[in-house]
Design a protein that fits this description.
With 292 residues, this protein is α/β, with parallel strands linked by helices. It contains eight helices and ten strands. 37% of the residues lie in helices and 17% in strands. InterPro entries: Cys_synth, Cys_Synth/Cystath_Beta-Synth, CysM, P-phosphate_BS, TrpB-like_PALP, TrpB-like_PALP_sf.
């Protein structure tokens, strides 16, 4: 039976680490979201937000969609817009990696660069107010975490046979941790939901600590059992180790989440710890995180 591209979003591999886990009674697992068609965990909410908006009659093919993004959501939306017949305008920080900008443009999206994510969100709101398009708003749209509640969380529960004890996810838009955390807590309230934020001074793509006025409205901190901070050097070093010691080529936020997961592993025994590998490393080659 022939299938469409959107049918291959989700059901990504859950892989056990061989070397980085060390001599431990714990099982460390990483979910390879880079295996989605557009290369990241954001394929899930991008498809979910467009599908649900269509179903509600809020958008229809041919409309212009506007979104503020640091990268992965923009790439996923650009793919979904191309696939489903929308014009896509993406607003992102000027310091975004070259690969991300080029990938969005390859899918036919228009890219506007501004100074920082807060400015990107403000400009998106301004453009919508001027009638230039419709914003899906990953930061406030419940269809973002819903994608993970309906797919990512159940996949993790299924593939661990319900044995997961800790879920570790970087925090950016927070859709992943909100949706997965909700599902996993409903399945077993004892599961610990662990969020990862950048330490002071760190600038890690995909991991954010928002100013209070910009905290995504989809985020409910009461649903997170623990927040761990990760430094720039630790995130980048773990990203390189993940490639060299496990053969998993991932982005910097994935290294940050895994650094936190390994710290957590040193504190517990007989645990099954799942960490999200958000995307692939090829969209970070120009950042210098990988040696030339």
């Amino acid at each position: 039976m022939y299938r469409y591209l959107e049918d291959f979003v989700g059901n990504t591999p859950l892989v056990r680490l061989k070397r980085l886990a060390g001599d431990s009674s714990n099982v460390l697992l990483v979910k390879l979201e880079g295996n989605n068609p557009a290369g990241s965990v954001k394929d899930r909410p991008a498809l979910s937000m467009i599908r649900h908006a269509q179903a509600r009659g809020a958008i229809r093919p041919g409309d212009t969609l506007i979104e503020a993004t640091s990268g992965n959501t923009g790439i996923a939306l650009a793919m979904a817009a191309a696939m489903m017949g929308y014009r896509m305008v993406l607003i992102m920080p000027r310091n975004s990696s070259l690969e991300r900008v080029q990938t969005m443009k390859a899918f036919g999206a228009e890219v506007i660069l501004v100074e920082g994510m807060e400015a990107a969100r403000d400009l998106a709101d301004s453009m919508v107010a001027q009638g230039q398009g419709v914003v899906l708003d990953q930061f406030a749209n419940p269809d973002n975490p819903l994608a993970h509640y309906e797919t990512t969380g159940p996949e993790i529960w299924r593939d661990t046979g319900g044995r997961i004890t800790h879920f570790v996810s970087s925090m950016g838009t927070t859709g992943t941790i909100m949706g997965c955390g909700r599902f996993l807590k409903e399945a077993n309230p004892a599961i610990q939901i662990v969020g990862v934020q950048p330490a002071d001074g760190a600038s890690i793509p995909g991991i954010r600590k928002w100013p209070p006025e910009y905290v995504p409205s989809i985020c409910d901190f009461s649903r997170i059992d623990r927040i761990m901070q990760v430094g720039q050097d630790d995130a980048e070093a773990m990203t390189r180790r993940l490639a060299r010691e496990e053969g998993i080529f991932a982005g910097i936020s994935s290294g940050g989440a895994l650094a936190a997961a390994l710290q957590l592993s040193g504190e517990v025994r007989d645990a099954v710890i799942v960490s999200i590998v958000c995307d692939r490393g090829d969209r970070y080659l120009s950042t210098g995180v990988f040696p030339a």
